[in-house]
TrEMBL record:
Record key words, sorted: Ubiquinone
Natural source organism: Acinetobacter celticus
Record's keyword annotation contains Cell inner membrane: no
Pfam families recorded: Methyltransf_11 (PF08241)
Chain ranges of the Methyltransferase type domain: 40-132
Protein's name in the database: Ubiquinone biosynthesis protein UbiE
An MF annotation (GO) of this entry: S-adenosylmethionine-dependent methyltransferase activity
Record's keyword annotation contains Translocase: no
Amino acid sequence: MIYKFYQQHIFPHVLNQVMQTPSLMDKRRELLLPISGDVLEIGFGTGLNLPFYQQVNTLYALEPNPDIYHLAVQRVHEAPFEVQHIQAHAEKLPFADHSLDHIVSTWTLCSVANLETALDEIYRVLKVGGTFHLVEHVLHDQNLYIQRLQNLLTPIQKRLADGCHLNRNIQRALTDATLELRECTYFNAVGIPKIGQRMLLARAQKT
Ligand SMILES: C[S@@+](CC[C@H](N)C(=O)[O-])C[C@H]1O[C@@H](n2cnc3c(N)ncnc32)[C@H](O)[C@@H]1O
């Protein structure tokens, strides 16, 4: 009961604050400014990406958790373009095959329960030549000590942060899903604890 209260009434506010860390907002800008047209964003969260879409027509805001989406509503109302909320999971996207030019994920692939299925779905609904744009925290690719800690603490992190895995190798998962990397940059995010600091900004294309 206390855990349910935490999940419904405390975690969404913590998420909303943490995800506004200035270095993360800078990465949102870098990722999203070049994107135009109709866009699907998976794990829309509290709507923090909205100010960075400059050339978008319709944004399909896929967010399964109503307690988190609740904190996005005001931002959605203020958006200068159409935003359609879709309450669904990335593992079962309610879109036709080959129907989208752009899909976005910002710190969502850590949280989807089944990463492989979600990436298969993203591949399915992208048009040939369509692009998946993402920025995610990842399994550390250089520091074995941090990698071990990430593996050790992921079960606790999943409980505290709504299913978030600290130890996902996102680049390998993209390649396994046969998405072709067009851009791939690793960085350490300023202002984030070392255990979740290693991040990947990438654009991957369905060819
Ligand atoms: C760490 S938050 C990131 C939120 C937002 N993308 C941002 O950048 O602030 C992860 C988000 O993924 C959502 N999520 C969790 N499981 C999901 C799934 N299976 N499919 C789509 N979204 C999911 C959560 O509800 C949450 O909003």
